[in-house]
């Protein structure tokens, strides 16, 4: 894995997302990295991420898949263009579509990180499709697909 997370390369003015923004004091601050051809993120849910005792809230799972997917899309563009992460022009994405399948209850434990793994399905123009799995202790709990859309440069005026 690389030392610096994908999200650490986002410019400050694009780093306030609740899920992945490093500058959001109340956010999740997820961190995604390359692991070969896949991206990986580990996240430890807290007690306030509960649906029912011992089970993670589904909205958190969707948020993790969403933000890991858009971060992976950004990193994939840099990789496909043989550019360093964070180099200009900035490659940042928003969610065009998010589909999540909840396969089994996701256990909630402060000792058990959730693992997200992303695979690039397609890169076409401004669109990147990322397939993401979420597992706990090696057991697949959810899977999703993120259709990420690149933010046009003119909308990133401060970057």
What does this 3D model show about the protein?
The chain is mainly β and 159 residues long. It has a single domain, classed as Roll (Thiol Ester Dehydrase, Chain A), CATH 3.10.129.10. 14% of the residues lie in helices and 36% in strands. It has one helix and eight strands, in the order ββββαββββ. The strands form two sheets. The chain has a six-stranded antiparallel β-sheet with strand order 1-2-6-7-8-5, covered by helices on one side. Strands 3-4 form a two-stranded antiparallel sheet. Strand 7 and strand 8 form a beta hairpin. The longest helix has 23 residues. The chain is globular and about 45 Å long. The two termini are 27 Å apart. The mean pLDDT is 95.
**Strand share of the residues?**
35-45%
Going by CATH, the homologous superfamily would be Hotdog Thioesterase
Give the oligomeric state: single chain
User: Briefly, what CATH class?
Assistant: Alpha Beta
CATH topology: Thiol Ester Dehydrase, Chain A
> Which structural class do you get from the secondary structure elements?
mainly beta
Helix/strand order, N-terminal first: EEEEHEEEE
Global geometry: globular
Biggest beta sheet summary: 6 strands, antiparallel
Number of domains: 1
Distance between the termini: 27 Å
Helix content: 10-25%
Q: Unreliable stretches, pLDDT < 50, 5 or more residues?
A: none
What is the average of the pLDDT values? 95
Radius of gyration: 15 Å
Number of helices: 1
Order of neighbouring strands in the sheet with most strands = 1-2-6-7-8-5
Number of strands: 8
């Amino acid at each position: 894995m690389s030392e610096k997370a994908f999200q650490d390369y986002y410019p400050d003015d694009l780093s306030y997302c609740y899920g992945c923004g490093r500058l959001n004091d109340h956010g999740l601050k997820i961190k995604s990295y390359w692991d070969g051809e896949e991206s990986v993120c580990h996240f430890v849910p807290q007690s306030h991420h509960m649906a029912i005792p011992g089970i993670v809230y589904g909205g958190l799972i969707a948020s993790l898949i969403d933000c890991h997917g858009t971060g992976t899309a950004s990193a994939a563009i840099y990789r496909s263009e043989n550019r360093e992460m964070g180099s200009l022009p900035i490659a940042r994405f928003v969610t065009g579509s998010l589909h999540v399948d909840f396969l089994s209850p996701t256990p909630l434990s402060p000792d058990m990180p959730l693992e997200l793994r992303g695979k690039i399905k397609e890169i076409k123009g401004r669109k990147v499709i990322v397939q993401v799995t979420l597992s706990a202790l090696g057991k697949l709990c959810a899977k999703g697909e993120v259709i990420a859309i690149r933010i046009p440069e003119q909308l990133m005026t401060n970057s």
